[in-house]
Amino acid sequence: MKIGIISGGDHFIPLAYTLASQGLQVCIFFSPTEDLAAQQKVQAFIQAARLPMQMEKNVTTDVYEWLDAVRPETVFVYGYRYLLDIKRFAGIPAFNIHPGPLPCFRGPSPVFWQLKTGQPTLGFTIHVLSEKFDAGQVVWTKTIPDQPHYTYAAVNQLCSQYCIEGVMGIIAMLRQRMPLPAISAGNKQAGYHKRPQLHDILINWEQMTATEICNLIRACNPWNKGAMTIFNGQELKLMDGALTATHTNTHPGTVIIQDKVMEIVCAGGRTIRTNMLYVYEGYVPAYYADQFGVRHGVKLG
Protein backbone atom coordinates (compact mmCIF):
# COMPACT_ATOMS: atom_id res chain seq x y z
CA MET A 1 0.00 0.00 0.00
CA LYS A 2 1.36 3.41 -0.99
CA ILE A 3 1.04 6.11 1.66
CA GLY A 4 1.66 9.79 0.97
CA ILE A 5 2.70 12.22 3.71
CA ILE A 6 2.46 15.98 3.19
CA SER A 7 4.31 17.99 5.79
CA GLY A 8 6.07 21.25 6.57
CA GLY A 9 8.04 20.16 9.62
CA ASP A 10 9.91 17.25 11.13
CA HIS A 11 7.13 15.81 13.28
CA PHE A 12 6.15 13.30 10.59
CA ILE A 13 9.43 11.40 10.94
CA PRO A 14 8.34 8.80 13.56
CA LEU A 15 5.22 8.10 11.51
CA ALA A 16 7.11 7.71 8.24
CA TYR A 17 9.68 5.46 9.90
CA THR A 18 6.99 3.20 11.39
CA LEU A 19 5.02 2.93 8.15
CA ALA A 20 8.14 2.08 6.16
CA SER A 21 9.24 -0.49 8.74
CA GLN A 22 5.82 -2.14 8.37
CA GLY A 23 6.52 -2.68 4.66
CA LEU A 24 4.33 0.14 3.39
CA GLN A 25 5.52 2.28 0.50
CA VAL A 26 5.96 5.80 1.89
CA CYS A 27 6.30 8.93 -0.26
CA ILE A 28 6.97 12.35 1.24
CA PHE A 29 6.03 15.82 0.04
CA PHE A 30 7.91 18.39 2.11
CA SER A 31 7.23 22.12 2.27
CA PRO A 32 10.34 23.78 3.77
CA THR A 33 9.87 26.57 6.29
CA GLU A 34 12.23 28.99 7.98
CA ASP A 35 13.11 26.28 10.54
CA LEU A 36 16.51 25.25 9.18
CA ALA A 37 17.10 22.73 11.96
CA ALA A 38 13.90 20.90 11.02
CA GLN A 39 14.91 20.92 7.34
CA GLN A 40 18.29 19.39 8.17
CA LYS A 41 16.65 16.75 10.35
CA VAL A 42 14.23 15.84 7.55
CA GLN A 43 17.00 15.63 4.95
CA ALA A 44 19.09 13.41 7.20
CA PHE A 45 16.14 11.10 7.86
CA ILE A 46 15.22 10.84 4.18
CA GLN A 47 18.79 9.95 3.24
CA ALA A 48 19.07 7.35 6.00
CA ALA A 49 15.64 5.81 5.32
CA ARG A 50 16.01 6.11 1.53
CA LEU A 51 12.47 7.32 1.08
CA PRO A 52 11.35 9.33 -1.95
CA MET A 53 10.70 12.98 -1.16
CA GLN A 54 9.74 16.01 -3.21
CA MET A 55 10.57 19.48 -1.95
CA GLU A 56 7.96 22.15 -2.55
CA LYS A 57 9.03 25.10 -4.68
CA ASN A 58 5.74 26.34 -6.08
CA VAL A 59 3.04 26.39 -3.38
CA THR A 60 0.28 26.69 -5.96
CA THR A 61 0.94 23.65 -8.12
CA ASP A 62 3.67 21.36 -6.75
CA VAL A 63 1.62 19.38 -4.25
CA TYR A 64 -1.07 18.57 -6.83
CA GLU A 65 1.49 17.58 -9.46
CA TRP A 66 3.08 15.33 -6.82
CA LEU A 67 -0.30 13.70 -6.13
CA ASP A 68 -0.84 13.05 -9.85
CA ALA A 69 2.64 11.60 -10.26
CA VAL A 70 2.80 9.46 -7.11
CA ARG A 71 -0.88 8.47 -6.87
CA PRO A 72 -0.82 7.41 -3.20
CA GLU A 73 -3.69 5.26 -1.99
CA THR A 74 -4.01 7.32 1.21
CA VAL A 75 -2.57 10.69 2.26
CA PHE A 76 -1.80 12.01 5.74
CA VAL A 77 -1.16 15.73 6.18
CA TYR A 78 0.91 16.75 9.19
CA GLY A 79 1.98 20.33 9.80
CA TYR A 80 1.40 21.70 6.29
CA ARG A 81 0.81 25.46 6.34
CA TYR A 82 -1.43 25.91 3.32
CA LEU A 83 -5.07 25.07 2.73
CA LEU A 84 -5.33 22.16 0.32
CA ASP A 85 -8.01 21.84 -2.36
CA ILE A 86 -9.57 18.47 -1.59
CA LYS A 87 -11.25 18.39 -5.02
CA ARG A 88 -7.81 17.97 -6.56
CA PHE A 89 -7.16 14.82 -4.54
CA ALA A 90 -9.39 12.99 -7.02
CA GLY A 91 -11.00 10.77 -4.41
CA ILE A 92 -7.81 9.78 -2.60
CA PRO A 93 -8.66 9.38 1.12
CA ALA A 94 -6.87 12.18 2.95
CA PHE A 95 -6.54 12.97 6.65
CA ASN A 96 -5.02 15.73 8.72
CA ILE A 97 -3.05 15.10 11.93
CA HIS A 98 -3.78 17.95 14.35
CA PRO A 99 -1.86 18.29 17.65
CA GLY A 100 -4.88 19.54 19.54
CA PRO A 101 -8.47 18.59 20.41
CA LEU A 102 -11.19 19.61 17.98
CA PRO A 103 -13.23 21.69 17.66
CA CYS A 104 -11.92 23.53 20.74
CA PHE A 105 -8.39 24.22 19.49
CA ARG A 106 -8.56 24.87 15.79
CA GLY A 107 -5.72 26.85 14.30
CA PRO A 108 -1.99 26.59 13.58
CA SER A 109 -0.63 26.50 17.17
CA PRO A 110 -2.88 24.25 19.28
CA VAL A 111 -0.05 23.02 21.53
CA PHE A 112 0.89 26.57 22.51
CA TRP A 113 -2.68 27.47 23.45
CA GLN A 114 -3.36 24.24 25.31
CA LEU A 115 -0.31 24.80 27.49
CA LYS A 116 -0.79 28.54 27.96
CA THR A 117 -4.40 28.19 29.00
CA GLY A 118 -3.51 25.48 31.50
CA GLN A 119 -5.65 22.66 30.13
CA PRO A 120 -5.60 19.71 32.56
CA THR A 121 -5.55 17.32 29.61
CA LEU A 122 -3.94 17.60 26.19
CA GLY A 123 -5.58 16.30 23.04
CA PHE A 124 -4.52 15.09 19.60
CA THR A 125 -6.79 14.51 16.62
CA ILE A 126 -6.91 12.96 13.17
CA HIS A 127 -9.73 14.21 10.96
CA VAL A 128 -10.80 13.89 7.35
CA LEU A 129 -9.17 16.59 5.23
CA SER A 130 -11.76 19.27 4.49
CA GLU A 131 -12.31 22.49 2.57
CA LYS A 132 -11.62 24.51 5.73
CA PHE A 133 -8.78 24.20 8.21
CA ASP A 134 -9.42 21.69 11.02
CA ALA A 135 -13.08 21.25 10.12
CA GLY A 136 -13.35 17.68 8.80
CA GLN A 137 -14.98 14.71 10.45
CA VAL A 138 -12.90 13.50 13.40
CA VAL A 139 -11.94 9.82 13.09
CA TRP A 140 -9.39 9.45 15.92
CA THR A 141 -8.58 11.24 19.16
CA LYS A 142 -6.13 10.82 22.00
CA THR A 143 -6.17 12.54 25.38
CA ILE A 144 -3.34 12.58 27.91
CA PRO A 145 -2.96 14.38 31.24
CA ASP A 146 -0.78 17.47 31.22
CA GLN A 147 2.43 17.31 33.26
CA PRO A 148 4.47 20.17 34.76
CA HIS A 149 7.52 19.20 32.69
CA TYR A 150 5.70 19.16 29.34
CA THR A 151 6.95 21.88 27.02
CA TYR A 152 5.82 22.92 23.54
CA ALA A 153 8.46 20.68 21.98
CA ALA A 154 7.70 17.75 24.27
CA VAL A 155 3.97 17.80 23.53
CA ASN A 156 4.55 17.98 19.78
CA GLN A 157 6.88 15.02 20.09
CA LEU A 158 4.24 13.11 22.04
CA CYS A 159 1.71 13.82 19.29
CA SER A 160 4.14 12.54 16.66
CA GLN A 161 4.34 9.26 18.61
CA TYR A 162 0.72 8.83 19.62
CA CYS A 163 -0.68 9.63 16.17
CA ILE A 164 0.98 6.49 14.80
CA GLU A 165 -1.68 4.48 16.66
CA GLY A 166 -4.43 6.41 14.89
CA VAL A 167 -2.82 6.22 11.45
CA MET A 168 -2.28 2.46 11.67
CA GLY A 169 -5.89 2.00 12.71
CA ILE A 170 -7.16 4.11 9.81
CA ILE A 171 -5.01 2.22 7.31
CA ALA A 172 -6.26 -1.12 8.65
CA MET A 173 -9.89 -0.03 8.28
CA LEU A 174 -9.31 1.27 4.75
CA ARG A 175 -7.66 -2.01 3.75
CA GLN A 176 -10.59 -3.98 5.10
CA ARG A 177 -13.07 -1.51 3.55
CA MET A 178 -14.53 -0.84 6.96
CA PRO A 179 -16.32 2.44 7.70
CA LEU A 180 -14.26 4.92 9.66
CA PRO A 181 -15.58 6.03 13.05
CA ALA A 182 -17.33 9.38 13.22
CA ILE A 183 -16.37 10.84 16.57
CA SER A 184 -18.79 13.44 17.85
CA ALA A 185 -17.61 16.69 19.42
CA GLY A 186 -20.50 16.50 21.86
CA ASN A 187 -21.08 19.78 23.64
CA LYS A 188 -17.55 21.08 23.10
CA GLN A 189 -17.38 24.72 22.08
CA ALA A 190 -15.62 25.41 18.79
CA GLY A 191 -12.73 27.84 18.98
CA TYR A 192 -10.05 29.13 16.62
CA HIS A 193 -6.67 30.18 18.01
CA LYS A 194 -4.29 32.20 15.84
CA ARG A 195 -0.52 32.05 15.84
CA PRO A 196 0.94 33.60 19.01
CA GLN A 197 1.63 37.32 18.76
CA LEU A 198 3.94 39.45 20.89
CA HIS A 199 1.31 40.15 23.56
CA ASP A 200 0.59 36.41 23.80
CA ILE A 201 4.16 35.54 24.84
CA LEU A 202 4.76 38.56 27.10
CA ILE A 203 4.60 38.06 30.88
CA ASN A 204 2.28 40.47 32.69
CA TRP A 205 3.65 40.33 36.23
CA GLU A 206 0.86 42.51 37.60
CA GLN A 207 -1.93 40.24 36.40
CA MET A 208 -0.56 36.73 35.81
CA THR A 209 -0.36 34.22 38.64
CA ALA A 210 2.64 31.98 39.21
CA THR A 211 0.84 29.04 37.62
CA GLU A 212 -0.12 31.08 34.55
CA ILE A 213 3.48 32.25 34.09
CA CYS A 214 4.85 28.72 34.39
CA ASN A 215 2.31 27.58 31.80
CA LEU A 216 3.36 30.37 29.44
CA ILE A 217 7.04 29.50 29.83
CA ARG A 218 6.32 25.87 28.89
CA ALA A 219 4.25 27.01 25.91
CA CYS A 220 7.18 29.13 24.64
CA ASN A 221 9.92 26.55 25.10
CA PRO A 222 11.94 26.08 22.98
CA TRP A 223 10.56 27.80 19.89
CA ASN A 224 10.67 31.30 21.47
CA LYS A 225 13.49 30.52 23.90
CA GLY A 226 11.02 31.06 26.73
CA ALA A 227 8.40 33.59 27.83
CA MET A 228 9.36 37.22 27.41
CA THR A 229 9.63 40.08 29.86
CA ILE A 230 11.41 43.45 29.75
CA PHE A 231 14.48 44.47 31.72
CA ASN A 232 16.21 47.83 31.25
CA GLY A 233 14.39 48.28 27.97
CA GLN A 234 15.69 44.95 26.61
CA GLU A 235 14.06 41.58 26.04
CA LEU A 236 14.69 38.99 28.71
CA LYS A 237 13.27 35.50 28.43
CA LEU A 238 12.59 32.93 31.11
CA MET A 239 13.38 29.48 29.76
CA ASP A 240 12.06 27.55 32.73
CA GLY A 241 9.89 28.19 35.75
CA ALA A 242 8.70 26.20 38.75
CA LEU A 243 6.23 27.03 41.48
CA THR A 244 7.66 27.62 44.96
CA ALA A 245 6.14 27.67 48.43
CA THR A 246 7.17 31.30 48.90
CA HIS A 247 4.46 33.92 49.51
CA THR A 248 5.35 37.58 49.82
CA ASN A 249 3.85 41.06 49.76
CA THR A 250 6.68 42.27 47.51
CA HIS A 251 5.63 43.96 44.26
CA PRO A 252 5.00 41.57 41.32
CA GLY A 253 7.94 41.29 38.96
CA THR A 254 10.53 41.77 41.73
CA VAL A 255 13.58 39.51 41.58
CA ILE A 256 14.56 37.71 44.81
CA ILE A 257 18.02 36.13 44.85
CA GLN A 258 19.26 34.15 47.83
CA ASP A 259 22.23 31.76 47.76
CA LYS A 260 22.30 32.21 43.96
CA VAL A 261 18.73 30.88 43.65
CA MET A 262 16.49 33.23 41.68
CA GLU A 263 12.80 33.65 42.40
CA ILE A 264 10.44 36.20 40.87
CA VAL A 265 7.27 37.51 42.50
CA CYS A 266 4.04 36.98 40.56
CA ALA A 267 0.53 38.39 40.92
CA GLY A 268 -1.03 37.13 44.13
CA GLY A 269 2.27 37.09 45.99
CA ARG A 270 3.51 33.64 45.06
CA THR A 271 6.94 33.26 43.44
CA ILE A 272 8.43 31.10 40.72
CA ARG A 273 11.97 29.81 40.62
CA THR A 274 13.88 30.08 37.35
CA ASN A 275 17.22 28.54 36.47
CA MET A 276 17.92 29.71 32.94
CA LEU A 277 17.50 33.05 31.17
CA TYR A 278 17.96 34.17 27.58
CA VAL A 279 19.32 37.69 27.49
CA TYR A 280 21.48 39.69 25.08
CA GLU A 281 21.25 36.83 22.54
CA GLY A 282 22.77 34.35 24.97
CA TYR A 283 21.84 31.68 27.50
CA VAL A 284 22.54 32.77 31.06
CA PRO A 285 22.23 30.52 34.14
CA ALA A 286 20.34 32.28 36.93
CA TYR A 287 23.37 32.08 39.24
CA TYR A 288 25.21 34.40 36.82
CA ALA A 289 22.27 36.74 36.27
CA ASP A 290 23.73 39.45 38.51
CA GLN A 291 26.63 39.76 36.07
CA PHE A 292 24.09 40.99 33.53
CA GLY A 293 22.41 43.41 35.92
CA VAL A 294 19.59 41.11 37.03
CA ARG A 295 20.18 41.49 40.75
CA HIS A 296 18.24 41.02 43.95
CA GLY A 297 15.47 43.62 44.24
CA VAL A 298 15.27 44.72 40.59
CA LYS A 299 11.88 44.70 38.91
CA LEU A 300 11.08 43.04 35.62
CA GLY A 301 8.42 44.17 33.19
Give me a quick take on this structure:
The chain is of the alpha/beta class.
What does it look like?
The chain is α/β, with parallel strands linked by helices. The protein folds into two domains: 2-175, Formyl transferase, N-terminal domain (Rossmann fold), CATH 3.40.50; 198-292, Roll (Methionyl-tRNA Fmet Formyltransferase, Chain A, domain 2), CATH 3.10.25.10. Helices cover 26% and strands 26% of the residues. The protein is built from seven helices and 15 strands. The protein has helices at residues 13-21, 36-49, 62-70, 110-116, 152-175, 198-201, 210-219, and strands spanning 2-7, 25-30, 53-55, 74-78, 94-98, 121-128, 138-145, 227-231, 234-238, 242-247, 255-258, 261-265, 270-274, 276-279, 282-285. α1 (13-21) runs parallel beside α5 (152-175). The mean pLDDT is 96.
Features:
301 residues, alpha/beta, Rossmann fold, Methionyl-tRNA Fmet Formyltransferase, Chain A, domain 2, seven-stranded mixed sheet, 7 helices, 26% helix
Read across the widest sheet, the strand sequence of neighbours is 3-2-1-4-5-6-7
Radius of gyration: 22 Å
Average of the residue pLDDT scores: 96
Helix content: 25-40%
How would a textbook summarize the main sheet? 7 strands, mixed
H-E order = EHEHEHEEHEEHHHEEEEEEEE
CATH topology of the largest domain: Rossmann fold
Number of DSSP-assigned strands? 15
Basic shape: elongated
Distance between the termini: 56 Å
β-strand amount: 25-35%
Q: Which class do the helix and strand fractions yield?
A: alpha/beta
What is the total domain count? 2
CATH class call of the largest domain: Alpha Beta
CATH superfamily of the largest domain: Formyl transferase, N-terminal domain
How many helices? The count is 7
Question: What is the CATH-assigned architecture of the largest domain?
Answer: 3-Layer(aba) Sandwich
